[in-house]
């Protein structure tokens, strides 16, 4: 039988006091962020968070109410206002719509919190009457640790934390991008490039992996890992545009411009299309461009954008279903749910002209 991982064992592993470990795991002040992160990482590696009742006790939660009184209960939707993660977003807003519809059909309420600081989050959270949490988008480890500490069941959408165990819901990014890349190669494209910061999110990295896998399977040389187009800053607001235009100008001069560009999402693809037009490169006449997500603006692009349709509302509904199942059976194995995404063919892709 495996031995229980205690705070003292974590302290011994790191060479710090149990007091420091307790402060770090309870979210209390008095420990610097570097030490707190070391403690959280060590706790995760040793298996502390996977133990039943591993969270710090002290916050009492009311048990689930009978079905007849479920309309008195709510689910917390945590969507920190970072990286354009708002209800007004053409991507994140649709996910929240799916969550809201699923909760409404179950007679449950929804409380949206956009706080991104752990110390403020714990002050505004009243666990009484909260059934569980659905996290939307990027959420810091320290915030997720607070949720785990409280013992609140949670499901994350489009994000996972390597240190805090939870159920997750993603679009099937790897397979979808592999299919899209194979489609482009199938119509003759072999000089293909990926645009998007692979450190930005798990989804962006998975889409890069799908792209790279398709190239390797077809014997096409993959761009280098240190390619500057894989680490562009300004993905949210389009400020990467000038750097991209400089890259295009250099490629035109060297006569090394690709025949197709696959972008990590639609917003990047629409910005890329504008930049190419400003540089005198026609889409798709000179260069094909694809996006990912199928936001509403994708169909209004010039030209309309070939993309991958991510069923955003379905992701929200799946998260609610998983959360309710987790509440019903807290000891079931954690799951990563992948939602199938399909290619939407529009006018931004054509056969290569060279």
Automatic annotation (TrEMBL):
One family name in Pfam for this protein: Peripla_BP_3
Span of domain HTH lacI-type: 5-61
Alphabetical list of InterPro entries matching this protein: HTH_LacI, LacI/GalR-like_sensor, Lambda_DNA-bd_dom_sf, Peripla_BP_I
Keywords assigned: DNA-binding, Repressor, Transcription, Transcription regulation
Keyword check for Transcription: yes
Lineage top rank: taxon: Bacteria
Gene Ontology molecular function, alphabetical: DNA-binding transcription factor activity; transcription cis-regulatory region binding
Keyword Repressor appears in the UniProt entry: yes
Protein name: LacI family transcriptional regulator
Organism: Paenibacillus wynnii
């Amino acid at each position: 039988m495996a031995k229980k991982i205690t705070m003292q064992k974590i302290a011994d592993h790191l060479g710090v006091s149990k007091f420091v470990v307790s402060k770090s795991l309870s979210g209390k002040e008095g420990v610097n962020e570097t030490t707190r992160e070391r403690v959280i990482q060590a706790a995760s590696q040793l298996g502390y968070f996977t133990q039943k009742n591993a969270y710090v006790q002290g916050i009492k939660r009311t048990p689930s109410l009978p079905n007849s009184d479920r309309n008195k209960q709510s689910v917390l939707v945590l969507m920190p206002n970072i990286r354009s993660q708002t209800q007004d977003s053409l991507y994140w807003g649709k996910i929240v719509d799916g969550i809201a519809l699923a909760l409404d059909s179950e007679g449950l309420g929804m409380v949206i919190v956009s706080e991104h600081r752990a110390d403020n989050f714990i002050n505004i959270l009243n666990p009484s009457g909260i059934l569980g949490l659905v996290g939307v988008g990027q959420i810091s480890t320290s915030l997720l640790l607070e949720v785990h500490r409280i013992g609140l069941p949670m499901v994350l959408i489009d994000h996972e934390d390597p240190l805090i165990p939870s159920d997750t819901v993603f679009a099937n990014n790897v397979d979808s991008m592999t299919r899209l890349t194979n489609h482009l190669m199938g119509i003759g494209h072999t000089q293909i490039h990926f645009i998007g910061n692979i450190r930005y999110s798990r989804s962006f990295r998975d889409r890069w992996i799908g792209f790279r896998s398709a190239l390797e399977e077809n014997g096409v040389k993959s761009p280098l890992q240190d390619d500057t187009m894989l680490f562009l800053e300004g993905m949210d607001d389009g400020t990467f545009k000038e750097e991209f235009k400089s890259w295009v100008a250099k490629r035109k001069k060297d006569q090394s411009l690709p025949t197709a560009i696959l972008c990590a999402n639609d917003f990047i693809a629409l910005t890329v299309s504008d930049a190419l037009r400003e540089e005198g490169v026609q889409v798709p006449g000179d260069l094909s461009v694809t996006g990912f997500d199928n936001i509403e603006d994708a169909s209004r692009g010039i030209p309309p954008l070939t993309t991958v349709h991510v069923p955003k509302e379905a992701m929200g509904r799946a998260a609610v279903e998983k959360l309710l199942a987790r509440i019903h059976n807290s000891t079931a194995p954690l799951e990563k749910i992948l939602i199938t995404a399909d290619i939407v063919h529009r006018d931004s892709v054509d056969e290569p002209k060279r």
